[in-house]
Task: structure prediction
Amino acid sequence: MMNPSRRATRVLTLVNPFSKRAQPSAMMDRYSWYEIVLIYLGIFVFLFFMLAPFLEGFLVSLKPLSQLFSTPYSFWPENGSFEAYVTMWERIPYFAIYIFNSLLIATVATLIVLALVVPAAYAFARFSFRGMPLLLGAFLAVSMFSGAVLLIPLFRLMRTLGILNTYWAMIIPGAAFLIPSAIWLLRTYMMRIPPELNEAAYMDGASQFYTFRRVILPLARPGIIVVAIMTFIGAYAQQFIFALTFNSKTEFMPLPVGLFAFFGRQEVIWNELMAASFVGIAPALVIIFFLQRYLVGGLTAGAIK
Amino acid sequence: MGQLSLKQITKTFGTFEVVKDVSLDVHEGEFMVFVGPSGCGKSTLLRMIAGLEHTTDGDIVIDGKRVNDLAPVDRGIAMVFQSYALYPHMSVFENIAFPLRVEGAPAAEIKSKVEAAAQILHLENRLDQRPGNLSGGQRQRVAIGRAIVREPEIFLFDEPLSNLDAALRADMRIELTRLHKQLGATMIYVTHDQIEAMTMANRIVVLNAGDIAQVGAPLELYHKPQNTFVAGFIGNPRMNFLPVTCTEVTGTGVTVDFNGQRLHVEVEAPASLRSHLPGAPLTLGVRPEHITLGGGNASMTVTPSVMEYLGQNTIGYAPLPGGEETFCFVLPGTQKVPADTPIDVTFSTADCHLFDSDGRALPRRANTEDLGAPALQIERTTG
Result:
């Protein structure tokens, strides 16, 4: 027989740190010590793999340029400074505009996508109409092409529409390629909202639009936010190729093209490039951080049963 | 107001007929229960009355007006769903107020009406909470509150208590009956639970595979089922059916041969059947609770394979020769009847039912009032 007090401590030390149960010492949440070591080791390896480039990038941004090519290579910066974060603004005078352009393009694209996708996803989730599977399949098929494959036809389209060298030339294709996956994502989320709520609202005299606005939209909010984040990141990331192809005006260029300016004819100014990358990502990080605070789970608790 | 008529309602899904030519009158202020096994079409029928499903054929008439093409609100109907269907992002107050907000009622009116509904349903202290924080019974009351706040003429309930535990269900049964008295509105209630049907209904509609098997007051269905389906469905444990042969039809009833015993059952033999009856196979129905040990004028020997001792009564299950049917008997109190030992059980022919080979009952002669059923209170005329 095991001593009860020892038994208690043993249970305590082996509590699953990841358990989301109210009672974290539940039987199925108990791990032995080597399982916990393995779990943390796995997490560490994974995170290191993901974050090492960021760490290296940050350290590079602190080093003077000469140190970057020294042998032996020193991982930690000697007499590191934030100087590159100052000089980058002088080297690329338009840099602030590039950041603004990137944010503008991504934000407008996200708003367009949301305005189109939220009603579309609702329709795909709630109504059944002729040709629905075909349409959904078509959306899936479209999203299999990357924008790069369609650059030439898109270029001709933009030229015909007369929107080359404007913000729209980067916003419209950006939004278009993000719509299919957004529809699929949000449709899945909206299908989880109990259809009884629609029936109940209908019994209470609410119109389709009233139900959509007062019942469905508030309940779909976490899903809409996820779609907004995904679209924003997507729009932020895919700007390079559209901007390079459809825009030749410096003042409309987004951040990725702006970063390209650090690649000189002779050398790449790595430390300022890294510094600029971090500065450029910062606004997007802030926006995403702000959005994800609205991601609250369990909104539909208590709807049925 | 609140008089509903169904006229030859039919509903098909594809080629499958879910509701077959159902005609029914629900009187004003009546508590009508639709009961039947799953898949009998009772929920579909309710959803058609609600306006959530189209009828394939037939008319739904409320207060003399055909409402087939009207939206639920214009029919003067409110519905309480089995799953409650509360709006989880709204407070209890807003949930109850929802139909009024849709109407665009003034804020003061909304407040007074919601508070009145909350008082009826004992939800005064819960108005600020979200449905997720309420117990099952409270959620159900919020769903009812949302229905009563619009003051409809007809309430529809789709198995509203099936998600509650047994004790809460019993409480809610009483509350719903009280609510029906208080509001005086017509209520149509769908359930598969015959206890709910028997306790709450003024009249019960028993549905079987899309057809109405019988309509009547609860005890009328119990004492005078019109066919084997209703006889087997109403009453728990279900009625025992024993094969017998008709030997004679007299002025007072029908005499049958049951395992060599001649039993005289007081039923009316319809004139059309009279000449065919002698020699024909019939089914003798006797309820488990009418089986006794000794007494009665018919007896049989059974060997119970399973005995259940509930304290309040003792239930035995015995296989019948032929194998398909199980003979069940309920004895009052705790009886020392061991399993796997043959015993003689008896019953009285006065408690028996007779059914012809098509499953139709030969009407019992006994007066419903003598059997303990109250006079039918549903014969209120609606002007």
Notes: Chain B has a mean pLDDT of 90. The CA atoms of residues 170 and 196 of chain B lie 9 Å apart. Chain B touches chain A at residues 50-52, 71-73, 77-79, 81, 83-89, 98-99, 102-103, 130-134, 136, 139, 146, 150, 163 (CB under 8 Å). The two ends of chain B are 10 Å apart (CA to CA).
